Q: What sequence folds into this?
C-alpha cells in the first residue's frame, strides 16, 4: 500500500469513529493507552476488510494491496505509511502478540475475494477463526489478559460474534457482495436455495436454518463464559461488553423471527449506553 493510501494516525481514529461499530463502542471502557492501541488495531482490521469489500477495485488490485499488508506484518517490507508504521509500533509494544495473527486476519480477508460460498460448517468455522477469533487473540494481549484460559475464551467468543454477524447480514451480504456464508450442506438439509434467498422467499426451511445457526452461536457464547478467566476480569471488561452487545443483538433477531432478508438489525445507541453503564457498575 502506498503512503497516499494509508491512513494517518488521526485517520485511524476517524476510521474507528466513522465505522459506528459495536466493537469500537466497547473501547469506551478501556484506559487511554489501550484505547489508542485498540484503535490502531481496529483501523488495520477495517482497512484490510474494506480492501476485500471494495466494489470498484479489480480483484488483482485487492490481492496486491492485501499482499502488501502481509509483507509488512511479516517484516518482508518496511512500513511506508502512517498506519503501517503504527501497526509495527504496536507489535513492538506487545511482543507477546504473534505477528502471524495479523497474517491470519489477512488470510480471512482473502477468503472474501471472489465468489464466497461454503460447503460445510467446518469450512465456515475456519473463516470465523481467521476474521474474528484471531482478532480476539490479539485483543486480549492488548487488554493485558494473562490467564491460561484467556486464548480459548477469545476463540470461542470470536466464533460467537462472527456467527451473529452472519445471521444478521444474510440479506445484505447477498445483495451487496454476492456472498453466502450459510453452509451449503445446511441449506440443502432445510431445503433453502440461493434463488429463494435472492427472491426474499426462501421457504419454510429458512427459519429452522437460522435457528440452527443461532444455536451454534449461543453454544459458542456459553463456551466463552465457561472459559472466562476470572482473574483477568478487570482486563476483559471490553470483551465482555462486546459479548453482552452481541448476545442482546442475537436475542432481538431471534425474538423478531429472523427477518434478516428484509430488515437490518442494530443495537441502538441508547441500548449500548445502557449495557455499558450496567457493565461498568457491575464490574
A:
Amino acid at each position: 500500500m502506498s503512503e497516499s493510501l494509508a491512513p494517518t494516525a488521526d485517520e485511524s481514529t476517524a476510521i474507528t469513529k466513522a465505522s459506528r461499530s459495536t466493537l469500537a463502542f466497547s473501547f469506551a471502557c478501556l484506559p487511554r493507552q489501550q484505547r489508542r492501541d485498540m484503535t490502531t488495531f481496529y483501523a488495520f482490521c477495517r482497512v484490510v476488510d474494506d480492501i476485500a469489500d471494495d466494489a470498484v477495485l479489480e480483484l488483482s488490485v485487492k490481492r496486491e494491496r492485501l499482499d502488501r499488508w502481509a509483507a509488512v506484518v511479516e517484516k518482508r517490507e518496511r512500513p511506508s505509511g502512517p498506519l503501517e508504521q503504527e501497526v509495527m509500533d504496536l507489535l513492538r509494544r506487545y511482543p507477546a502478540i504473534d505477528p502471524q495473527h495479523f497474517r491470519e486476519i489477512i488470510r480471512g480477508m482473502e477468503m472474501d475475494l471472489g465468489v464466497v460460498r461454503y460447503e460445510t460448517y467446518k469450512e465456515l468455522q475456519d473463516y470465523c477463526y481467521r476474521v474474528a477469533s484471531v482478532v480476539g487473540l490479539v485483543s486480549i494481549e492488548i487488554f493485558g489478559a494473562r490467564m491460561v484460559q484467556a486464548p480459548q475464551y477469545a476463540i470461542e467468543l470470536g466464533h460467537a460474534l462472527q456467527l451473529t454477524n452472519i445471521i444478521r447480514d444474510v440479506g445484505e451480504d447477498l445483495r451487496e457482495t454476492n456472498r453466502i456464508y450459510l453452509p451449503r450442506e445446511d441449506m440443502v438439509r432445510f431445503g433453502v436455495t440461493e434463488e429463494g434467498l435472492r427472491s426474499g422467499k426462501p421457504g419454510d426451511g429458512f427459519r429452522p436454518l437460522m435457528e440452527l445457526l443461532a444455536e451454534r452461536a449461543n453454544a459458542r457464547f456459553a463456551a466463552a463464559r465457561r472459559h472466562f478467566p476470572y482473574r483477568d476480569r478487570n482486563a476483559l471488561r471490553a470483551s465482555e461488553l462486546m459479548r453482552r452487545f452481541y448476545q442482546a443483538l442475537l436475542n432481538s433477531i431471534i425474538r423478531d423471527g429472523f427477518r434478516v432478508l428484509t430488515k437490518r438489525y442494530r443495537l441502538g445507541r441508547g441500548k449500548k449506553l445502557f449495557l455499558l453503564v450496567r457493565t461498568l457498575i457491575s464490574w
